[in-house]
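USER: Note each token:
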Amino acid sequence: MSGRHLARRAAAPRLRALAAVLAVALVAGLGLVTGSTEGTSAAFTASVRNTGDRLQTATYFRCPDAWAPQRDGAVFQWPLDEKAIAQLVRDTFSDTAGAPLSGHTGDTGGTWLRHNSSGSTEVVFTGAGRVRKSGSTSFVLYRSEPASSSPNYTVSADVFVRSTVAADTVGLVGRLNTGSATSTTGTYYTARYEQADKRWALWSVVDGGQTLLGTSPATLADGSTTRFSLDLVGSTIRVLVGGAQVIAVTDTSITETGRAGLAVGTPGGSVYATSDTTGLQLDAFVVQPTQRATDVSGHGATGAYVGSQGTLARPPLPSCPRDPGAAYDPDGSTSYVTYPTKQSDPQTFSMETWFRTTRPQGVVIGFGDSATGTSTQADRLLYVSAEGRLIYGQRPRNVQTIRTTTSVTDGAWHHVAVTYTPKGGMTMYLDGRRVAYDATVQSAMNYDGYWRVGAGTIPSGWPVTPDSPYFVGGLRYAAVYSVVLTEEQVRQHWEAGR
């Protein structure tokens, strides 16, 4: 056989393969594929016959189905397409000066009720559109309607210091048992500012028994306004000031949904009075139910949205165009998603998500010893650096990192995945390609902790740290695994969203 004929025979399989690939791409591109209805989650297959009459197939996954082979090894798989839940109660306290809070209806939600016989003193409206304690008794407690559908919600308000009054106290209330006979024999959590001790304090009150769960020192200046919140997610009870966690405890003494509300004064405390020109006043009261991040791994690994939850309409490309839905839109100052189940020192794992951003800031996925707020120990961090590049790092002793060579703050959707195993080290993939690795890293920091998406704690000493640990932009299809994804699996996950 001549050399020319041999060359033709060698080239023929390559040409047939190329023709098959092009034909499959054409079939898929024209939509000539059965079983590919938009909005369903089934993968579909396009089949053509090549010139050698051999069947050539290619499978195109939608994003959730590209995950399917890894579900046994998944810690969680969150599409992050939930719609934001509306505020349950919002009240800017606009009413006639001197009118009582009892019977007042807020901007959204129902009517305020004084909680049984919690005191003869009313809370009244000021001429500036706030509420304050009236009269000269020690304590009064109010609840807002309606009830949340779950015991997981955040109660927030502004505290304005008109002037300092000794022993003055204002607080927020959650999980208030409406069947309690009086405030002193009631059951609820309360976060409050205590002027006498110059501190934020978190208390549980169970059948009248008061337990101090935590404090944080603070001095509020005359004329200042401070936003504070009582955050209730399962057994994690927190106080936030200005969006930052100042107190966080684990407590299981009160689990019922109850009601949210406010309180002024201290049960059994000093008797005092305030006026429109003196004391602590409250404004901008909000009750925000906690939205849950649905898990599709089959393991029931539901996440919890923390902070303000927004959504972005799904863009045409490339955030999984075959999957309708919205993307998670964190606000860049309070928002993230946490997996509140403690993980035992993960030393082999993978993480991935689709993201887009124009801001060089924020942890995309990270691990820390606190499910919410600031972690004392934190590593296994993937973040957008102050230079706009992705950095991933671990801290067995010293911080060890890998990073992209180019910026990702271009506003386009990207897929990122990071894998780690002590035998293989750290590997980062961006848009289906391996872009960085370090095979010398033999361990991560040893501690038990929690995974978060959209924010985390970046300890001092880490390279090119951004101004804020909160991510700004869009997030979609976030997952963590207890196994290492292969390069081919990462590529398939990226291709599923193109």
About this structure: The longest helix spans residues 3-30. The longest strand covers residues 153-163. The two ends are 46 Å apart (CA to CA).
